[in-house]
Specification:
mainly alpha
Length: 166
């Protein structure tokens, strides 16, 4: 039983499912559902459609470079089956799945890492811009403790003005 990949969204197409389109030059396109088939007919680029795997990989949402993806490659050469080799392969598949899931979890954690600081900076910026919505401007002028502290940036003189002074 061969599980194909959808040409548009890269999801699995099981035997007896999906739509198969054969072009005049005998190239076969398999689609998992009519949504993918319709998008293909509308000549949409899968890399620009947000719900496809191509988009997610291109924009760093999913892992792209991982050695465990080598095992999913389609191979068209016939193989002789040996019971021991098959047993070892099945064991290897289990360990590969564990490794892949661990690496995906690390990838997701790395993506989430900078988000908290970014959200905090955005919240502070929004609060600075709209502090008058929280407190009346008259109250802010009377009590300076209600305003957010300004971050002092050390202003360095341009090099040209330093040269002029020397």
């Amino acid at each position: 039983m061969r599980i194909e990949k959808c040409w548009f969204c890269s999801s699995a197409v099981y035997p007896g499912h999906g739509i198969q389109f054969v072009r005049n030059d005998a190239k076969i396109f398999r689609f998992c559902r009519s949504k993918c088939h319709k998008n293909f007919k509308m000549k949409r680029n899968p890399r620009k459609v947000k719900w496809t795997k191509a988009y997610r990989r291109l924009h760093g949402k999913d892992m792209t470079q991982d050695s465990t993806f080598e095992f999913e490659r389609k191979r068209n050469r016939p193989e002789r089956y040996d019971r021991n080799v098959t047993e070892n392969t099945l064991k290897a598949i289990k360990t590969i799945d564990k490794v892949r899931s661990r690496r995906e979890a690390k990838h997701i954690e790395r993506r989430k890492k900078g988000k908290k600081g970014q959200l905090m900076r955005e919240a502070v910026k929004e609060l600075e811009q709209s502090i008058n919505l929280v407190k009346a401007p008259a109250v802010l002028s009377e009590d300076p403790s209600l305003t957010l502290p300004k971050i002092m940036v050390k202003a360095s003189q341009p090099q040209e003005s330093q040269r002029m002074e020397e």
